[in-house]
């Protein structure tokens, strides 16, 4: 069995919708299918979506990578697919991930800043930038739930949703306040 690796860039054709559970809904569907199929085909890799662009890295058995890429090429949810890397691989470089999803766009923003790039335009990446992006995906830690922070908010913006811990804290604080007002009222 020969191994290969492949990276490409493309442009989303869909209009990004508000994020649901931390990920854009079209991308969530793509991730669900990818994780099911890639686990079956023992493909590993990662996907980054930002600025209406995709960057995807895949590695695994050559036939499986090519079959998958053939399906991806026909997908109407993106266009202008540019192959950035397509070459044999001696050993796998990702472990136990069917499709990693870069959770922190801050990492990508740092990478773009380091490279002096203003926006995420992966189709213009040099091979060195591709390798750095792959390294970034490889090193990003996450669980299998897609968590994307690049949800049309710029890095550094305040989060739009409260964490469940913060919500609980606010509810408790509210109850204490109401209790104090009630007790205070009865004492007057
Ligand atoms: P199906 O059972 O045919 O479809 C699975 C789900 O995807 C269904 O809900 C279906 O409605 C939906 N779907 C399929 N095609 C479209 C479409 N053109 N428009 C809207 N919805 C559609 N597939 C992988 O297996 N591995 C990958 O790593 C992978 N990466 C992708 C990256 C990108 C950027 C994109 C756009 C697609 C990717 N896909 C990937 C999806 C791939 O293009 C095929 O849709 C998928 O492989 C079909 O698999 P299936 O026959 O098992 O799914």
Automatic annotation (TrEMBL):
Record-linked SMART domains: BLUF (SM01034)
Keyword presence, DNA-binding: no
Keyword Transmembrane among UniProt keywords: yes
Entry keywords, A to Z: Membrane, Transmembrane, Transmembrane helix
Top-rank taxon, per record: Bacteria
InterPro entries tied to this protein: Acylphosphatase-like_dom_sf, BLUF_domain
Transmembrane spans: 168-187
GO molecular function, one term: blue light photoreceptor activity
Positions of region (Disordered): 139-159
Domain BLUF: 3-100
Name the UniProt record assigns to this protein: BLUF domain-containing protein
Organism whose genome encodes this protein: Marinobacter adhaerens
């Amino acid at each position: 069995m020969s191994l290969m690796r492949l990276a490409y860039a493309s442009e989303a054709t869909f209009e990004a919708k508000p994020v649901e559970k931390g990920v854009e809904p079209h991308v969530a569907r793509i991730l669900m299918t990818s994780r099911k199929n890639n686990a079956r085909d023992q493909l590993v890799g990662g996907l980054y979506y930002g600025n209406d662009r995709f960057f995807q890295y895949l590695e695994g058995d050559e036939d499986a990578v090519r079959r998958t890429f053939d399906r991806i090429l026909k997908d109407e949810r993106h266009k202008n697919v540019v192959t950035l890397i397509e070459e044999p691989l001696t050993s796998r470089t990702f472990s136990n991930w069917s499709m990693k999803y870069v959770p922190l766009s801050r990492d990508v923003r740092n990478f773009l800043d380091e490279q002096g790039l203003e926006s995420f335009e992966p189709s213009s990446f040099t091979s060195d930038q591709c390798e750095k992006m792959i390294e970034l995906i490889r090193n990003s830690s996450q669980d299998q739930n897609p968590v994307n922070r690049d949800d049309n908010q710029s890095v550094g913006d305040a989060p739009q949703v409260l964490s469940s811990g913060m919500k609980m804290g606010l509810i408790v604080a509210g109850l204490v306040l109401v209790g104090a007002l009630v007790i205070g009222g009865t004492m007057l």
